[in-house]
Amino acid sequence: MSHQFKPGDLALIVGACSVPENVGKICELIEMLAAEQISAWIDPSDGCRVQNGDDEPGWLVIGDGILSANGEPGHVLAMPRHLLPLNGDPVPEQQRVKEFEPA
How many angstroms separate the CA atoms of 97 and 44, rounded? Predict the structure, then answer.
């Protein structure tokens, strides 16, 4: 399933490749990073930027209790397929209407 995420959206982390401790945590989406892209976001704890070292795009997300792949608290890169949106309507309005129209 493909979601139309945007920065500022809230999501539930439902999967992980490298940090399974993050599964089940709520996060805020900050920035979509292409492979090898460096973020515009600066980590307030150390003043550094995050780089996506993976070969596919991922969302830079922040949240309480979230750990990065190297154990830093507060942020992680998450693949879009590992995120479930928490705000907004996951079902488009037209589809919802069609589902409830009498036959």
Answer: 44
Give the integer Cα–Cα distance in Å for 52 and 39.
8
Percent of the chain with pLDDT over 90: 65
Cβ(75)–Cβ(62) below 8 Å? yes
What pLDDT does residue 101 have?
Answer: 52
Provide the token pair at 66.
Answer: 């979230």
CA dihedral sign of residues 82, 34, 50, 55:
positive
Radius of gyration of the chain (CA): 16
Report domain extents, the chain: 10-100
Contact between residue 8 and residue 28 where contact means Cβ atoms under 8 Å apart: yes
Output the pLDDT for position 87: 73
Q: Which of 18, 49, 53, 17 is nearest to 35 (CA)?
A: 53
Amino acid at 98: K
